[in-house]
Amino acid sequence: MINVNDFKTGLTVEVDGDIFTVLDFQHVKPGKGAAFVRSKLKNLRNGNTVERTFRAGETIGRAQIENRGVSYLYASSDEHTFMDNQTYDQFSLNSKQLEWELNFLKENMNVNIISYNGEILGINLPTSVELKVVETEPGIKGNTATGATKNAKLETGLNVQVPLFINQDDVLLIDTRDGKYMSRA
Predict the structure, then answer these.
(1) How many CB atoms neighbour CB 133 within 10 A?
(2) What is the pTM of this model?
(3) What is the C-alpha separation between 2 and 59, in angstroms, rounded?
(4) For residue 98, which phi and psi values (nearest 5 degrees)?
(5) 11: DSSP letter
(6) Tens-place pLDDT, residues 77-124
(7) Does residue 135 surpass a pLDDT of 90?
(8) Strands 59-62 and 171-175
(9) Sign of CA dihedral 135, 137, 138, 143
(10) First to last CA, the chain
(11) How many whole angstroms separate alpha carbon 141 and alpha carbon 167?
(12) What is the average pLDDT score of the chain?
């Protein structure tokens, strides 16, 4: 059990039989009435985000999430196959479970699988990945007074806004948390 006063971003908890990760929280002490904790939680089973308020001092279950290293092997139709790096066991996840992550996954990429009591909940990506630009317009000289950007399509199909000096076939560092351009690799 964990006290809601001890919430931290990224903490995994069990509430009403579902597994959540804490995205954001705020301790509120109103002038009148009891203190409470307002939180934003992401359901790890279906990906939905909910806002939930707890009374200060309330205790809830802590979920013990297991992280294992796996390699992304290939995609076939709606299934994406991974291999456990220790046991070499292969398993598949469907595209619905990996909606956001598919923007960054490349074959033979190492990621962490998240599981709870043997149930696979999803994957954890590294905070940044290197992706190649497959399509972008050439930058127009003289259009750089205000840090202008242009659209670029990456090898995974993700579209990002990049500075004008980025060209086709450049390899970029992309933040997997928000899908934004960080720098050239």
Answers:
(1) 19
(2) 0.72
(3) 5
(4) -120, 30
(5) -
(6) 889 999 999 999 998 888 888 888 899 999 999 999 988 888 888 888
(7) yes
(8) unpaired
(9) negative
(10) 43
(11) 13
(12) 88
For residue 50, the one-letter residue type is V
Strand 110-116 and strand 90-94: the pairing is unpaired
Nearest to 96 by CA among 111, 78, 113: 78
> Cα separations (Å) of 113 from 53, 55, 62?
29, 33, 19
Helix, strand, coil percentages, rounded to 5, for the chain: 5, 55, 40
**Residues written for the chain:** 185
Token couple for 22: 């804490």
Contact by Cβ (8 Å): 113, 120: yes
**What is the distance, to the nearest Å, from the Cα of residue 137 to the centroid of all Cα atoms in its chain?**
28
Collect contacts of 100-105 with beta carbons under 8 A, ≥24 apart.
101/125, 101/176, 102/156, 103/156, 103/157, 103/158, 103/179, 104/129, 104/131, 104/156, 104/158, 104/174, 104/176, 105/72, 105/80, 105/156
The whole-angstrom separation of Cα 92 and Cα 105 is 14
